[in-house]
Design a protein that fits this description.
The protein is of the alpha/beta class. The protein is 63% helix and 10% strand.
């Protein structure tokens, strides 16, 4: 069982966090005009907010010092008080409305960047990845950018601006001790908040790691739904998921309890600071050095300042979490694609679609060679078949031709052009494949067939389905071509999925075709129908057929027999039978199995 704590990150140093913040600036600065207007609106909103207690002080002083005050109203002051409140709300909302485009465009661009990068990464990365965990990292990473912008523009900068304005007013109007008392209170508050929040951060790291692990387990279990059912392992899957969630529950509980302690400590610091300041202000009123309005002003300033500070712990903690989530995303972006176009990569000239493997060797791990000095040619318009036992390296030939991997030694050429010197886009555009394990999108049948050219006319899609002997089946379905196939094509049988893959390859109409055991999931009758379609499709194409059923490749121009990564026999079907070697034994065994079935 995998360690649920495997994704826990070490605490981030400021250098890494600042680098990640700098990485987001290009996304933020696309709308720099909006950013500047939003910041200007923020300053105006805070100026109006700080002005409210000043007006309130004048109102209180006017009413407390004017005889028969109940008959005289400070109309202009009251009017100004209302206007400042309105201005504060207006500029706050204006800031939010203007900055919304910046925030969500940054999320969109960053999401697209990550998605594009994931598609650029090598097949090796995607075979080793854990889809559920990456999905959570991607979601949390893009949301972290939005959260960071949100906290900076709506919490941190406004609080700093308001604090500076209040400190400036207190310095010029009142005794220095008021400013010192506020600074001391704020410093103690901030120090306590940062210290406790840093101490309890590991609970959040644990929660993130366990949440990613649980999500990965759930997705993996559901993707392998049929396998779970085959082995009656529902209790095992639920128990495995619950064990991870149990650890997540413990970490979440500890996080909440420690947060409550943090909140109480913050409240206590604020209460003591406010009490001390109110004593000082009340003393000033008694000594006639301050008016009742001054007392109200100091109280209003303190409440106005400490209300946003009360959320500092939440904001700081959220920023730390956002930076941690952002770090996972940027580490994902730092993954280097294994297969990249050369600096001077050329577009494939497919006028002659001859394929040539020259002394090709390949391994996934150095200690386990897969192909050993393989050489063969597929002339333009000819069909070459490859047969052999499982693990012989047959399907690896297709992956190398598609350049999902680069060869360790030797070269692969198309029309005398080394494929490593070509753009991947032009190379793959020239090749169509019907894979052994067909994976479909969770969309309708039409979408899956038309995937090579989604804007093609419906008639051409239907023609491809007819050639794959799939059209009659599709129109018999209640929703026809609009039938949803389910995740990975789960709602279709293996044979139906392979026929969709065949139709998709027919629809792409490439110059080079690869059939990787393309009829392995078909019954004999359906295979005979489709085999004719495949023969017609391959007639004017350069074709590589990786076959298990030897009956499907008797018409091949040459058959290669592979064992342990090497070609041990080659020739036509009749020549290989006369040779009485590996191929002849395989043919005899399959003929015997077929006779038993009949």
């Amino acid at each position: 069982m995998s360690d649920p704590h495997r994704r826990i990150e070490a605490p981030h140093n400021n250098r890494r966090d600042w680098q990640n913040v700098k990485n987001t600036l290009p996304y933020l600065w696309e709308y720099k005009g909006r950013v500047l207007i939003a910041l200007f609106s923020l300053v105006l909103a805070k100026a109006a907010t700080v002005g409210i207690p000043l007006i309130l002080k004048d109102i209180v002083d006017f009413l407390s010092q004017t005889p028969n005050a109940q008959l005289i109203l400070p109309v202009m002051l009251l009017f100004g008080y209302g206007m400042l409140r309105m201005a504060s709300g207006f500029f706050n909302e204006l800031r939010d409305a203007i900055f919304a485009k910046v925030r969500y465009r940054a999320m969109r661009r960053l999401s697209n960047t990550v998605m594009r990068h994931l598609h650029d990464l090598s097949l090796r990365f995607h075979l080793e990845r854990k889809t559920g965990a990456i999905s959570r990292d991607l979601t949390r990473g893009t949301q972290s950018v939005s959260s960071l912008m949100n906290y900076m523009v709506f919490n941190i900068i406004p609080t700093i601006a308001e604090f500076l304005l209040i400190a400036f007013i207190l310095l010029i109007q009142y005794d220095l001790k008021f400013t010192i008392a506020i600074f001391v209170t704020v410093i103690i508050y901030v120090t306590f908040t940062f210290a406790i929040t840093n101490w309890r951060m590991h609970y959040r790291h644990d929660m993130n790691a366990l949440e990613s692990e649980a999500n990965n387990q759930a997705v993996d279990s559901l993707i392998n739904y049929e396998t779970v059912k085959y082995f009656n392992n529902e209790p095992f899957e639920i128990n495995r998921y619950d064990q991870t969630m149990s650890k997540w529950e413990e970490a979440a509980t500890n996080s909440q309890v420690s947060m409550s302690a943090l909140n109480f400590g913050q409240g206590a610091i604020i209460a003591i600071g406010v009490t001390v300041l109110m004593f000082m202000a009340a003393q000033g009123v008694v000594e006639k050095t301050m008016s009742i309005g001054d007392l109200v002003l100091v109280n209003a300033f303190l409440l106005q300042l400490f209300i946003p500070l009360n959320f500092l712990g939440v904001v700081y903690r959220s920023i730390k979490y956002a930076l941690a989530d952002m770090d996972l995303m940027f580490k994902l972006l730092e993954e280097k694609p294994e297969i990249v176009d050369a600096n001077n990569a050329k577009t494939l000239n497919i006028e002659n679609a001859a394929v040539n493997f020259k002394n090709v060797s390949f391994h996934y791990q150095p200690e386990r060679p897969i192909l050993k000095n393989i050489s063969f040619e597929i002339p333009n318009g000819k069909k070459i078949a490859v047969v052999g036992s499982s693990g012989a390296g047959k399907s690896t030939l297709a992956r190398l031709l598609y350049r999902f991997y680069d060869v360790a030694e030797g070269s692969i050429q198309i029309n005398n052009q080394e494929i490593r010197d070509l753009t991947q886009q032009s190379l793959r555009a020239a090749i169509g494949i019907v894979p052994q394990d067909t994976v479909l999108f969770n969309e309708n049948i039409y979408y899956n067939i038309a995937y090579a050219n989604p804007n093609a006319p419906k008639e051409s899609v239907e023609q491809a389905a007819k050639l794959a002997h799939l059209h009659e089946f599709i129109i018999s379905l209640p929703n026809g071509y609009e039938t949803i196939v389910g995740e990975r094509g789960l709602k279709l049988s293996g044979g139906e999925k392979q026929r969709v893959a065949i139709a998709r390859a027919i629809f792409k109409n490439p110059r080079i075709l690869i059939f990787d055991e393309a009829t392995s999931s078909l019954d004999s009758r359906t295979e005979q129908h489709i085999q004719q379609a495949l023969q017609e499709l391959a007639e004017h194409h350069t074709t590589l057929v990786i076959a298990h059923r030897l009956s499907t490749i008797v018409d091949a121009d040459e058959i290669l027999v592979m064992e342990s990564g090497e070609i041990v026999e080659r020739g036509t079907h009749n020549n290989l039978l006369q040779y009485s070697g590996v191929y002849a034994r395989m043919w005899a065994l399959q003929q015997q199995e077929q006779n038993l079935e009949n």
